[in-house]
Amino acid sequence: MIRYEQVSGTVFGLIALAQLTRAIRGLPAHVGTFAIPVWWSFLAFAVTAGLAVWGFRCARRGAA
Question: How far apart, in Å, do the first and last CA atoms of the chain sit?
């Protein structure tokens, strides 16, 4: 189970990094004809970074 939590933390960390990059650079994003506001990427960064931290903390607790 520790490996799963480490992989999950890494994947969520990469997604958080991508969201932060999009938010800082102000890159456009669209779903169909709907333009996704940049502030949503800051929110997505906060959520995915939190999930990454949670995954790594669970992995560390499981190893102890």
Answer: 13
**Cβ–Cβ contacts within 10 Å for residue 36, how many?**
13
Task: For strands 34-35 and 30-31, give the pairing.
Answer: antiparallel
User: What's the pTM?
Assistant: 0.87
Residue among 27, 50, 47 nearest 38 (CA) = 27
Q: How many residues does the chain have?
A: 64
Per-block average pLDDT, block size 10, for the chain (64 residues)? 92 98 96 95 97 94 70
Q: Where are the domains of the chain?
A: 2-63
Cα(54)–Cα(28) distance, integer angstroms: 29
Eight-state DSSP code of residue 32: T
